[in-house]
């Protein structure tokens, strides 16, 4: 039976908070994690990936791979695979064979971050879902774990992240 964990909601008052959340995840997520990023244009997906990349020790500039579709960064502690499916429909997204990144068949395992993962036809087995949204009260991230390890990580987020003090 698939386990269901409570989602964790974090308020993100400014871009630094989004970056800090990405940075924390980059420090703590296990190798092989696929982050499904969801949220409108401008909601902070790339900002979060910038924090993630910095935590992995990547110093190259990070931009949305809107046209290249996949950017691979290999200079850090773990490889980062950054995907942007904004321009693709599910059928076209499936033709990218992204599973060759997450099943270990072709690429060195690392961390994968997929912007516009709403456009994915099929999902990786144990993704970390991260939805960025706007509300009257401000912006927030909703994180939905799918493994005990991800759930434990979210349960132990430091107060500094929850209170946006980093
Ligand atoms: N929590 C936030 N509050 C305010 N502005 C933010 C926040 N997160 C990101 N931004 C800003 O929003 C803009 C768009 O962010 P970006 O990460 O490019 O979004 P996306 O990749 O989702 O289109 C950037 O100028 C970024 O600095
Ligand atoms: Mg982007």
Automatic annotation (TrEMBL):
It is found in: Cytoplasm. Keywords: ATP-binding, Cytoplasm, Magnesium, Metal-binding, Nucleotide-binding, tRNA processing. The keyword Chaperone does not apply. InterPro entries: P-loop_NTPase (IPR027417), T6A_TsaE (IPR003442). The keyword Membrane does not apply. GO terms for biological process: tRNA threonylcarbamoyladenosine modification. Coiled coil: none annotated. One of its GO terms (molecular function) is ATP binding. Its main location: cytoplasm. It comes from the Bacteria. GO terms for cellular component: cytoplasm. PANTHER family: TRNA THREONYLCARBAMOYLADENOSINE BIOSYNTHESIS PROTEIN TSAE. Belongs to the TsaE family. This is tRNA threonylcarbamoyladenosine biosynthesis protein TsaE. It comes from Halomicronema hongdechloris C2206.
């Amino acid at each position: 039976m698939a386990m269901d964990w409570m989602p964790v909601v974090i308020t993100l008052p400014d871009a630094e908070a989004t970056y800090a959340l990405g940075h924390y995840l980059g420090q703590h997520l296990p190798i092989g994690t696929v982050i499904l990023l969801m949220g409108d244009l401008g909601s902070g997906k790339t900002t979060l990936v910038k924090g993630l990349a910095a935590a992995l020790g990547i110093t190259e500039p990070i931009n949305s791979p809107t046209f290249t579709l996949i950017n691979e960064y290999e200079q850090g502690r773990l490889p980062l695979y950054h995907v942007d499916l904004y321009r693709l429909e599910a059928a076209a997204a499936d033709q990218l064979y992204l599973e060759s990144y997450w099943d270990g068949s072709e690429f060195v395992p690392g961390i994968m971050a997929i912007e516009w993962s709403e456009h994915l036809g099929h999902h990786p087995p144990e993704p970390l879902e991260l939805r960025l949204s706007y509300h009257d009260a401000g912006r927030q991230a909703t994180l939905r774990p799918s493994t005990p390890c991800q759930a434990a990580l979210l349960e132990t987020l430091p107060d500094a992240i929850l209170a946006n003090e980093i």
